[in-house]
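Section 5.1 Outputs to date
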Amino acid sequence: MEFQNVIEIKAPVTEVFEFVADMRNTPKWNYFVTRVIQETGNGPAPGARYYQTRKTDSQRYEITHYEQGQGLTIQTLPGSSLVFNRQLRFESISDGTRLIDQMSLRTG
C-alpha cells in the first residue's frame, strides 16, 4: 500500500525540519504513536536507529537518507511487525513549509 499526505505549516522550513526529523517528537504530532526511543546515533542522521511503540504494535527503524532542511527517509528493520519505507520532504513556501509525507507500507 502506498499513500501520500501533504500539509502546509505556517513556520519556517528549518524549524519544521528540525522538529519532525527528531523522531522522538513523533508522539507530539502523530496520535497513533505513543513513544519513540533513539537506540543508536546522536540526533537525526543517517544510521540513527529508533524503537517506536504505537497503539497496536511496535517497530524498529533507521534513517537511511538525510539532507538537512530538505528531507529524510526512514525504513523499518527486519523483525518489525509493520514494514515501511517513509520519505519526508520539506519545501519552503511563501507563508511557511510544505511537508510531503510519502509512505510505502506492507502490513503482512
